[in-house]
Amino acid sequence: MQNNVTQKLLAEFIGTMFLLIGVVGSGIMGETLAQGNTAIALLANAIATGCILYALITTLGPVSGAHFNPAVTLAFALRKEHAWRNFVPYVLAQVAGGILGVWLTHLMFDLPILQLSVHLRTGTGLWSSEIIATFGLLFVIFGGIRHRPDTVPTLVALYITGAYWFTSSTSFANPAVTIARGLSDTFAGIAPQNVVMFIAMQLVGVCVAAMILPRLFPHED
Predict the structure, then answer these.
(1) For residue 104, with 0-12 CB atoms within 10 Å meaning exposed, 13-18 middle and 19 or more buried, which class applies?
(2) 111 — alpha (psi -120 to 50), left (phi > 0) or beta?
(3) DSSP line for 187-209
(4) How many CB atoms lie under 10 A from the CB of residue 42?
């Protein structure tokens, strides 16, 4: 039993690490090559993030559920589909993996490993965006699980790729990702003083999903 839990935590750690490498690394590369064209940089960032999500969920889903996101873990726990005793260990693994992913990305791109972002992301528009983005992510996950479980990696990858563009916040929708991106003063960064409100709005999105999604996608009898 303990070995099984350790395997799941390792999967969440490595998966979140590679997710942040994908997010931050593609942001750096996109901004570098786009020569000031923010739209091109965001497109590169979105596509790379969608690709890495598909790969990670496909390979690690059978191991840990491929949450890579405390909001997703919380949503599963509220639906009694994830043991509460494993909630904190999952979150710690996700946050630690995300931070390491950011540091490794800085190392790859020859940047100072320890950074704090100065990219301000605040205001009602961005906060409401995080509620919608998080709710939408959970909508796609639980809808996919209920009707077409085999398509969940594709659904999540496509949703996040699109949500980079149709949400004003570029769809962080993930407390672990938000914390880690606060430690990168690059294209994907978020100023540390804005992190708490982003996470608070993501948790509001989880609460909204917890009220609505069980009615839309109830457990099978």
Answers:
(1) middle
(2) beta
(3) TT---HHHHHHHHHHHHHHHHHH
(4) 20
* This prediction's pTM: 0.96
The Cα–Cα gap between 78 and 65 comes to 15
| Residue 122 near residue 192, CB atoms below 8 Å | no
Residue 203: CB atoms within 10 A of its CB come to 17
Q: Give the separation between CA 15 and CA 73, rounded to whole angstroms.
A: 14
> What is the DSSP annotation of the chain?
-HHHHHHHHHHHHHHHHHHHHHHHHHHHHHHHHHTT-HHHHHHHHHHHHHHHHHHHHHHHHHHH----SHHHHHHHHHTTSS-GGGHHHHHHHHHHHHHHHHHHHHHHTT--SS--------SHHHHHHHHHHHHHHHHHHHHHHHH-GGGHHHHHHHHHHHHHHHSTT-----HHHHHHHTT--STT---HHHHHHHHHHHHHHHHHHHHHHHHHSPPP-
16-54 pLDDT per residue, tens: 999 999 999 999 999 999 999 999 999 999 999 999 999
Structural domains in the chain plus CATH codes: 2-216 (1.20.1080.10)
Amino acid identity at 99: I
The rounded average pLDDT for each run of 10 residues, N- to C-terminus, in the chain (221 residues) is 86 98 98 96 98 98 98 97 97 98 98 98 98 98 97 98 98 98 98 98 98 92 57
